[in-house]
Amino acid sequence: MSVSVSIPEELYEKAAAIARAQNVSVDEVFASAFAEHLAAWERLKERAARGSREEFFAVLDKVPDVEPSPEDRI
Q1: Distance between alpha carbon 20 and the CA centroid of its chain, in Å?
Q2: CB-hemisphere CA count at 13 Å for 74?
Q3: Which of 17, 65, 67, 69 has a CA-to-CA distance to 40 between 20 and 30 Å?
């Protein structure tokens, strides 16, 4: 399948440099990066499915309700 995507020139140049260094095509660099991004989303969805809103709030309930110390303030 072929898809046309517009990307910033700077991003293309970075991908082209990676492609040259790894002796692959720019298309392969983008396809690989896209596949990795999709896999990361799948891992995130799986982790989120294991989470529990109730357990999250139970942990938050253990956090003291105090102002942060001066060194922790931004």
Answers
A1: 25
A2: 0
A3: 17
| Of 46, 24, 44, 26, residue with least CA distance to 34 | 26
- pTM for the model stands at 0.66
Q: What is the pLDDT of residue 1?
A: 84
The token duo for 21 is 């260094």
pLDDT band at 11 (very low <50, low <70, confident <90, very high): very high
Task: For residue 29, count CB atoms less than 10 angstroms from its CB and return exposed for 0-12, middle for 13-18, buried for 19 or more.
Answer: buried
Q: What are phi and psi of 23, to 5 degrees?
A: 55, 45
